[in-house]
Amino acid sequence: MQSLQDKASEWSGVAAADAFAIDDGNIFESLGGTPQPFVDLSTNFYTRSAIAPLFLDQRLSALIRTDLDFLLTSTRLIPGSNRVYEDEEEWFREIFSGSKKEDAIQNQYEFLIQRMGGPPLFSERRGHPALIGRHRPFLVTHRAAERWLHHMQQALDTTESIDADSKVKMMNFFRHTAYFLVAGNEMTRKQSQSVACKHATSKPAE
Amino acid sequence: MQSLQDKASEWSGVAAADAFAIDDGNIFESLGGTPQPFVDLSTNFYTRSAIAPLFLDQRLSALIRTDLDFLLTSTRLIPGSNRVYEDEEEWFREIFSGSKKEDAIQNQYEFLIQRMGGPPLFSERRGHPALIGRHRPFLVTHRAAERWLHHMQQALDTTESIDADSKVKMMNFFRHTAYFLVAGNEMTRKQSQSVACKHATSKPAE
To answer: In its keyword annotation, does this UniProt entry include Heme (chains A, B) (predicted)?
Structure first.
């Protein structure tokens, strides 16, 4: 049987070694050892407006390094259209419809900071990433993966606080991970179906 | 709604801060920066024989640092009874019945090495840990968590290459994680049931 990893590599076109090249060095440290680049990226992923220049202000930058709450508050104040939440495809928008944008941004950047060598902010607040488990309610298809990656590529393109080399590594990680989740989602749905059918057959009158 | 993290803390009796105290330092480095303590632990978890003294041989230890394959081969050669695979409870044994002991040992110590600050051996070979997703096929109940923890406590007790302080931190992590998986398993099963019921109801004649 083909493993999740094999499927992810085949479908994404990214070998595991390239996907996990993010672990060759410490991306969090190489980007300055602050949450800012990841906050920029996740904000750009969910929000179309370019807010990066604001954070280049040195006084704000100093605040941000010690006060993530302030940062979250400030992102709420910045006007701008939504990227993912206003996607032209309804089926894609619906994946995000149950979560508040501010929460989605925080969940994503805390995960990314943790995964790229920074402090384990996500696990301290929410536990293990459990990527497949947490994506279980959504229909993570090849098409959904491509649309997510399309937005992430655009978000990366507009994030000035991340250098070109890190962007390549991160995109390889994202591409491989997106298809890993397609494979994982398929696997858990197949398992559920077999349970479901047995259950339905044994209790037909209910 | 209570989060997975809240349920894990309530059921395990371990606060998130204590569970993730493993991240306060780098346990992999503090244990010598080699796979050996983790290989010892996972071998002790699945195998009852005390193999630790063998690895204290300096020549073997040097080999082990550079050759995990050799190590795996050597663990296969050591006679000893099985711990988890020969558990007195059939329902617990069955959780492991589909996996080869050598694979189970390698999966566990590669995950632990990666999670405790060492090289990302697990992800390079198998992808994201995806703890909830990978445990989806098994009925991870409170009772199963306690039995798993019982064996892990015994395995830790007999692993001389791990110091007392690290053992406390690791056991807190294991206890919290075991119940995090109980909560995650419950969550994905509930999601499956609701899908299952809708499916069954709409196609009663099948």
So the answer is: yes
Could you tell me the CATH number of the domain that includes residue B112?
Answer: 1.10.490.10
Nearest Cα of chain A lies from the Cα of B97 at a distance, in angstroms, of 18
Question: Is A175 among the domain residues?
Answer: yes
State the average pLDDT over residues A55-75: 47
A161 located within any domain? yes
Kindly list the residues from chain B whose CB atom is less than 8 angstroms away from the CB atom of residue A120. Answer: 20, 23
Report the Cα A146 to chain-centroid distance in Å: 13
Would you call A203 exposed, middle or buried from its count of C-beta atoms within 10 A (0-12, 13-18, 19+)?
exposed
A3 and B126 within 8 Å at the Cβ level: the answer is yes
Confidence bin at A82 (pLDDT 50/70/90): confident
The interface pTM score, or ipTM, of the predicted complex is 0.78
Q: CA–CA separation, B47 vs B82, rounded Å?
A: 4
Cα separation, A51 vs A65, whole angstroms? 16
- Which H/E stretch holds residue A60? helix A58-66
How far CA A151 is from CA of A81, A162, B19, B161, in Å, comes to 14, 16, 35, 47
Nearest C-alpha neighbor of A21 from the set A116, A131, A109, A150: A116
